[in-house]
Write a structure and sequence with these properties.
Layout: E1 7-9, E2 12-14, H1 19-24, E3 33-38, E4 41-46, H2 49-64, H3 66-72
Antiparallel strand pairs: 1-2, 3-4
């Protein structure tokens, strides 16, 4: 467990992540990350464009076949 202090960064607030934590998650300067709320707290992951595209395709299929999926769920 690592204690992080909230700091003012420009007009925003943020935290500075330790180099060890960034290395473990394979996060480098300039990467985009996703902060997810989980039942146990927060999760920080590297944003992956291919996964985002796959999620959007799944949402599109779910919208297109909404009624069919609803019937199958019964």
């Amino acid at each position: 467990m690592t204690k992080l202090k909230i700091r003012k960064i420009g007009n925003s607030l943020g935290v500075v992540l330790p180099a060890e934590a960034l290395a473990r998650k394979k996060i480098a300067q300039g990467d985009t990350v996703i902060l997810s709320d989980t039942p146990d707290g927060f999760r920080l992951d590297v944003y992956d464009e291919s996964v985002a595209e796959q999620v959007e395709v799944g949402r599109s299929v779910a919208r297109r076949y909404r009624n069919t999926l609803r019937e199958l769920a019964k």
